Every structure is written in structure tokens, then in C-alpha cells.
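<goal> How does this chain fold?
<sample>
Here is the protein in question

***
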Amino acid sequence: MTISLNQTNTWPSEKSARLEEELGRRILIIDGAMGTMIQRHRLEEEDFRNTELIDNKRNLKGNNDLLSITQPEIIYDIHYAYLEAGADIIETNTFSGTWIAQSDYGLEEWAYRLNFESAKLAARAVADFEKKTGKQCWVAGALGPTNRTLSISPSVERPDFRNITFDELVDAYTTQARALLDGGADILLVETIFDTANSKAALFAIENIFEKDYSRVPVMVSGTIVDRSGRTLSGQTGEAFVISVSHSNPLCIGLNCALGAREMRPFIETIGRCTPAYVICYPNAGLPNTFGGYDETPEITAESLRDFASDGLVNIIGGCCGTTPDHIRAIKRVVGEYPPRKPNHSPYEGCMQLSGLEPFRIGKDTNFVNIGERCNVAGSRKFLRLIKDGKYDEALQIAKEQVENGAQILDINMDEGMLDGIAAMTRFLNLISSEPDISKVPLCIDSSNFKVIEAGLKCCQGKCIVNSISLKEGEEDFVLKAKIVKKFGAAVVVMAFDELGQAADADRKVEICVRSFKLLVDKVGFNANDIIFDPNILTIATGIEEHNTYGIDFIEACKRIKKECPGCRVSGGVSNISFSFRGMEQIREAMHSVFLYHAIKAGLDMGIVNAGNLPVYDNIDPKLLQLCEAILWNKDPHGTEKLLEFAQTAVKGEKTVEIDDSRSKPVEERIENALVKGIDKHIVEDTEEARLNTQKYPRPLNIIEGPLMKGMSIVGDLFGAGKMFLPQVIKSARVMKKAVGHLVPFMEKEREAALAISGEIASENDRFAGTVVLATVKGDVHDIGKNIVAVVLGCNNFRVIDMGVMVPCDKILERAIQENADIVGLSGLITPSLDEMIHVAKEMQRLKLQLPLLIGGATTSKAHTAVKIAPAYDHPVIHVLDASRSVVVCSALLDKNAIHEYMEEIKEDYEDVRQLHYESLRDRKYVSLEVARARRLKLDFTNQFTPVRPSFLGIKVFPEYDLESLLPYIDWKPFFDVWQLRGKYPNRGYPKIFSDETVGPEAKKVFDDAQKLLRRIIDEKLLHAKGVLAFYPANSCDDDIMVYEDDDWPRDEPLARLCGLRQQSEKENREEPYLCVSDFVAPLASGVRDYIGMFAVSAGFGCEELCSKFEKENNDYDVIMTKALADRLAEAFAEALHEIVRTELWGYCSEERLAPSELHSIKYKGIRPAPGYPSQPDHTEKLTMWRLLQAEPRTGIKLTDSLAMEPAASVSGLYFAHPESRYFGVGKITKDQVKDYASRKEIDVSHAEKTLNINLAYDL
């Protein structure tokens, strides 16, 4: 969904144009609460009546909208007071102005009059103020949400019931909008949206009157996030809300009500990030107090909103509940010095944007989208039977299973002769909206009856897909339906039908789709990204000869349609291809997989397919695969008979126990011994023995404070002295957890008893050295190091709140405040995490927190922390090298006597680091990109080395790789690094580490434990390894590698572009080249065919489940061991696969014979660098790899928002075959290359700078 920037609007009125001009020039002020000011007048029932209302039987007190008629001067004075306070825009007194809301008072017939008179009053106030001051102001006609909701049932027992319809809402909003415009409103403001479906009805009504009777005026849309979950009352996220209403092209979009400014900030930031419209924000005066009032003073509210202005988040700002003219005056004073937010093009331009409760975007790097097909009465006999029998609850379960099985969009079809399609569609969609697990995904409203489609659209708060319209009834009918779909804000599927019928061959498919595209874009004004073509997947292998090319025709049409209709998507009903084999599910599913394998490469973006029943292409029986391929490509005239024949055939040593010799000693010594030695065999009975000694330990807490903490103190001392090693500490922590776990129920009983007596409970936190909140930042899934830090700190009497992985900034800081934390610790492994850490530091500064911030993780460094993070926050920011240092740092930070001296030392150290950094930047010289390219590595691709063609081109999947076969390839050195066991020369590395006097015995012990768990993992199949690789024709063009689908020469249009970065740091040796990965691939100009490979592998499937099991057993040691082993297996998988590539699959080193140690030392030819690492530090290149590999649908290996791989134990990279290819670091680059790189990737320079932040040779 691409929305044109508001600056391109042409308004019929000069006042509207002036409004937009002012929005670009300064932050405008909207007024505050009408209700708060009315309450000051303490009006009684009689004040709400006039002579016309004497006989009204209802209680009218509280109907504030009515006061525009019965007490017009009060309302006028409120408007004028806000104008004097500095408001540029005032809202009409019509929040409850629909006949729906007025029906509570028996005043439905007054709706037009209420709105008309309210608008006149506001317009009079503006006119009088303009006459007095000369300042132009505007009247916003307020359209409130009503007191009914389309998405939520008022009856718990009947979730499908609604007490309002879409048509009734449209009627009500039409009356209101007409009256507001007739009364003089300059703007229509659809506000306080708690149910997006209601707002869509309002926008539908507004668009209707603009089309028929009224000149356009600016429309503004403001939603309401009801709590800190970031969702509306009807469950939508802020991003989903923006997508759902942006079809109306609002001048402004934003949030109001429910929250105060502090709570609203992260959500208004989200709104701003995903819309090119102007942003409006008018929060409450804080959160309501116990009595429903608001306590924030004007100064507090204004200061909270200052940051909104200074950080460029808003264009219009004001107040909602609890705010007064004094608040508006204070806000005006504070924000006046700041420029307005500058609207930008949508960051998702070029994407199809859909929404359910959550956003869903389909872009150029999105993998094939599964549209769930089982909620279709024409395609599922079970679903049809359930709907016919009225068993909607069971039918709903089918929808849920579809989503759980991977359907990203849900197709709903109720076309059956014996069904009332409109009623069935309405009821089922109403039920879906009550199920968040289903309604989170967008819906596809599927029917050949357009009335049923309209009924479905009226039930959807999200942006859905209409399936379908076509030209079969002519252009007039097509355009009419397309306009209706557009007005509802939906995307549309266009079938390849026209007046002559269904298109069967490729030429007809393309002709109809191109014609439809031009009508939709040029005549209806449809966004090209919201158009989906279904060029008709027709059945093959029917026995009729002309049907034999239907598969080929569809695939060819896909390619041509995508080329001639830029921006469109292509979809299809995949099950049609195999309809001739209905009843033979194994055959059908294989045909679907084969068809999709080829159609996706041709441009098929999405398809209606049962996501849970799709076999992996490479897992299909070889004979069946061959038959399906032959039929699809029409290679065998007897293929149908052969497949039918196949279908008919196919369907017919002793465990060592550690001895504990302390059983005869006192219980305290036994507990201490168990903790120090990590023996948990008797810890529960020993803890219970201590608990029963109530004379010595009156409370269970005394046992924790006494023998348990004494034992852990000894563990901490031994660890700090280097006499215990991390694996031993983890085992000690496991024993501690088990003991505490036994005591918890008794402490809970004691607490309940104390509460019953006094209602007071002593703080549990007093016994801890301090509270530390740890989190792996948003977008990053790696947590082994963080887990180790958590355990080590826990062993040293710190209370640790481990929030897990991929934690957003606002959640981290919210939890830190909630837990009254003493320290916040951030972890991350991938480079985008560094930017997120900077963001967290800035937010801590903005929120005026004073907590120390610890930074750790593989990608972090002392230099980056000192240069990039620490300057963003005025309080301690410290890089923690490893787990062993975390205790020392935390203890120093919480020691009141030592912290000042400690921080002075840190500040001096970090200042030195910063000085060295800036001096190195000044001293270091760089060559221009032009010079670097001229001095690139120039390899011979014709004489010394001729590129070898791989044994196949395309994708190969390894669905279940044998873990046993990976064992010889494991590099154990990084394993010992995880456990922070490092031998000293000459005993560094594996297996020499076992001979080291200091760490050798513990290294051997942890290694033996690893072998036992590894054996169990393999024997019990607790972890699974999956992978995918691909080979493609390729040639380089300057710093990029062009990837091609076919090996034809001359080359066709590239299938993809892999962008590279080139070294620019000046080299002392003028003969030394400036490297880029593209140098290792034959240039296109050389005329030499070359190739590139890529891969993604994981050994982390099952890791999360196994770790959860160990966590439930309080077994932190094996949690960390499992993750460490999964990482080693993943790296071994990558190493093993690379060997097979070199010797067999690509075969450019077929004679290679290397030992594992030689592999780890990279003695082989060729390299496998990964995006995000030194030779190409841009993680976004993974998106191209994932698309070419089809990695997620084929293996389940996903990319997070920050492009970390999930499961975390995953490895990916590119394969280069040239014998002179080598690993290198790009290092720092200058702005000329950043600009060039941004241009090649078609992104903003600022985006490129953010992505490449740590590689920039200049400061932003």
C-alpha cells in the first residue's frame, strides 16, 4: 500500500490548502477536552432541556452534544477559550452526535440538527476570533466512535451477535457528516477509534458524500490504544490500524484518549514510522485517578509532550480527557519552538499491506504466501457439513488449525446452493473476530456472488482481500465493483476472465490481466500493490490433449504479467492443477508441490493451498516426482496413464555416579557441600530437614538467608578466585534452584497467613544484593551468553529478571521500572542489535532514568560502547567483557562507598577510548570509491581458472540431516569459549586444553558431559538438522553480483542482485588490491559463465523444547549445554555441507582430501562468507538470499525483524569457488560509497547509514 504524500493534494477550497501549507510549516495545536470544561459548569437535568424537550421521558443529563442547542453560549465560550489559549483547530461538540448514540436519549431524529448547530457554533467562534486577531483557525467536525461495536459481541454467550450493522453505522455517519459540513466544518475528524470496523464505516460514509454531493475537505483519523499492550479495544495493533484506514488517504492519522503522553509515546512513534500522512496526537492529562479524574497539571502534560515535538514525532498536538485551555496554552508554549514532523514516503512502499489484528506485508523479499483453503465450502466437504449443520464452533477450529499450520491469509467461501451465503459469511466472520488466534491474520473474502463479498467486507476491521472480480460482465460492471472494493479499503483478486470467457493459454491470460490492470490503475485509482491477478490454474492430466499445456501456460503467464503490470501480485487456487486425481491425496499433494516449485520461481506470490499438507519437493518419491514433472511440462504423451498406474499401485556401558561422602555431617554442611560440588541428589531432603528445625529456622526464608546463601557465597568466592569454573557454577545454581523450589510453597503459605492477619507483607527483595533486568534486545534471538550472566549473578545473590530474547525497548524499561531494578543489562549478537542498544540508552535518557546500563554480547565492544552508546546516556554505561566480569561490575555499581571512584575510572577509560577512536579516524586515510574500484582484485577467469558448472542449478533441500555424520566436523574450541575455559600456551585449543594445569580438569569434565548429552540428543532425536543450498548462474557488475535464473548467454534480466561493499581504507602497499566479494565472480563483460552458491543450515530444531524441559527441572547447566551443542552442530553442518559442495555438488575440488583440523583452519579452496560479517557487513543481504533459497518454506529457518536467524543455532552464507577467493574485512567506508550503495539497493542514504553504522568512516 503506497499512499501519496499529502503535499501532492489539490484542495477545492483555499482554506483546506492553507491548512496543509501550515502543517508543513509548524506544529498546529488542536483544542482540549470539551467534557472536562462542561463539567465545571455543574449542570443539572433542567439545563439539558428546552421547551421542545419538556415531555421527553428520558434522563437527558450527560448528553453533552445537546448543549449546543439548549446552552449554546456555554459551548461557544469553551470554543473561544481554547482559541484564545492558542488552538489552531477546535472540535465540534459532536462526539456522540450520531443517531445511534442519541437513541439512548430518544433523540434519534435530532441527530442532523445537533451536528448542524454544533458546527455553526464552532464556526462562529472561529469567525469571531479571526476577526479579532487576524489568525486563521479551523473547525474539525468530530465523528465519535458511537457506543456500539462491529467487531465485538455485547453478549458473552453469543460471540457472533452484533447490536449494530455496518449499514446502520454508514447511515448514521452519513447524516452526521452532512450536517457538520452544512454547518461549516473545515475538517472531518473520525476520532477515538476503539474498533477499526466502526471507523471504516465512517470513512465509507464520508467517501460516499464526497462522491455524490460535497466538495472534499481534509479527513483526519485518530485511533485509541486502550492500554500498554499497544492495541485498540478490538485487538488491533497500531500498525494494523494504520493499514486498515489508510485507503481513505487521510491528511492526518494518529492517536488520542485512553493514555497519557508518557504511555502513548511508543505507539505514536509506531504510527509515524508506518505512514506518510501527517501525525496527530492528543493524549489525556495522564491516566485517570481512583475517582476517574485527571491529576496532571498543564505544566506536566506540556513537558511530557515537549519530547514529542523535539523528536519530530507530530504535526498536530493537543489534549483529550482532563485537559483544559490552560493545558493547551502550556502545550502551545512548549512546542512552538520546534519544527513539525516531516512526512516521508512510506518505508513499505512497494509492498502489499494487509492486516488482521496484526500487520502483514508482502514485498519483493517475501517468500510464497500460503492462503489457507479449508474454510471453503466448495473445497472442503468437512467444512461444508459443519456449516450446513450449524456447527460453527467446530468450523472455527478448522480456521484455527489453518493458521497454526502456516496459513498467512485465510480464505473464506460460503458459495453453496443450499446455503444463505450472506448470512453464513456474516456469522462466520463475526465468530472469527472473537478469536484472536485466527483474526490476527488477514482474510480473503471469496465468493462469486458480489453481495456475499460486500457482506464479508462489512464484518472486517482489517484490510482484507476480495476474491474476486473480473471482466466477464464487461467494463462497466468491473469498474463499479472495483470502486466499491476500493472504498472498503481492500485489495482485490482479478480473475483472467473477460466477455469472451476464461483465458486458457498464456497470451489470453496476459491480455486480460493487462487490460484489467490499466482500468484499475488509470480509471479507478487503485494502488498497483493492491492488485492480485489469478490467471487461472487449470487442471492438467485430464486425458484431453489441449489441457496438457495448462501448467506451462500458467507459469509463462506469471512471468509476463509481473513484467507488464509492475507492482501487481499473482495468485491462484493450487488444488485446481490436480483436480483430475481427486481422491488420491498423495498424488495431488505431490503435484501441488511440483507445480509450486516452478510457479513460485516464475512469479507466483501466493496461493490458496492447504499449508499443512504440502510435501517438500525433495522429499517426494523419486518416481512420483519424475512423473509429476513430466506431466507439468508435457514431456510424456502417456504421462497421465503412468501417473494413474502409479497412484493405483501406491495406494494398495554403565553410568558413573558421583559419590557424596558428607551424609554423616550436620545438615548445614551437607547443603554447603551439595552447592559447592553441584550434587542435587539429597538437596530436597536436606532442605526439608532444615525446614523442620523450626527452633533454628523459624521461617523458610531463614534457610535461604542462612545455609543456602552461605553455600552460594562460597561458590561465588571460589568462582571469583578462579578456583571454580563456569560449568561447575551452573550446576551449583541448579542445586540452589531445586532447594528454593522446595521452599517456595511453604513461603507462600506463610505469606498468605501474614496477609490474613495484618494485610502487610515484608519486601522479598531485601535479601538480595540487587535487582538486575537482563534482555536480549529486539530483533535478536541469541541468549546463551545472557543466560550464563544470569546464572552467575544469581549465584552471587543478585535477583535476576531475565526477559528472554527479542524484547522491545519499551518493555525492557517498563519492566525495569516495575521491578524497581538497580541495573539494566542488554545483550546482542548481531550488528543491528547495536543500534537497538543505542535506542535503549536514548530512551533511558529521555525518561530520566538513572539506572546503570550494562552492554554485552559477541558483537559488542568496549570501543562501540564508549563511542556510540555511553554518550547517549548521562548515567553509567559499561561494557561487560564476559560473565566472570559481571559480578565485579554489578557489585561495584551497587557499592555506595565505591561507585563514585569506580565510575570516575570508567569515565576516564572510556574518554581515552573515544579520543583514540576519533584520532584514528582523523589519521586514517581513505581512497575514493572510484579509485578503490580501479584498484580492485583482477582475477583471471579464462587461463589460470575456468569456472566449473555445478552438478545442478537451483535448490536442494536437506530435510533431516544425520547428526551422527556431523560429529567429525565439530570444532570444539568455540565450545570451550562459551564456558569461558581458555588454556594458556602451549595448551590452547582442543584437545590440548585438557593438559592445561588450571582449566584442564574442568574442561575435560565439561567435555565429557557434552559427549553424554550429545549422545542422548542423537539417540533420542532431540535435535534436528535441516538445510538448503542453491546454485545459480552469476556474473559481477562492479561491486554487485548479478544472479540469473537460466544459464543462457547472453544473460537475461537478473533474477536478483547481491550488493557488495569495497574496502576504502588506504593501503600502505600500493600493489595490494581493494577487495569486494564481487571480485571473486567473473565480470559480465568477460563473457565467461560463472556461478554462485548459497546456503542456510540449522541444528536448532527442537532446541527450544529441550531447553524448556531442562528449565522446568531447574537445570540451567544443561540449558546452556544444549544451546552450545546446537551451535556446534550447526557450524559442523555448514562445514560438512561445504565439503560436499566442493567435492561433489559443485565439484570444483573433487580431489580434495582434508582432515577436520585442516577444514577448521580453512585449508580448502573457496570461501563461504555470510552477510553481516566483515566481508559484507550488511545483514539486509540475507533477505535476497532467503528469497533465492526459499529458506523459510523449505526448512523453517526464519529471519527476525532485525535479520537474526531463527532457530538461533543456524548458519548461512554464500559459496565462492575461485581458488583466490579469501576472507577479508571491508572496514570503514566513506560517504561516496554509502551513497552509491544506497542507490544500487534503491534505499535512502539514511537507511544505508543506519544499516552500515559501525562501518562508517564519518560520524552522523
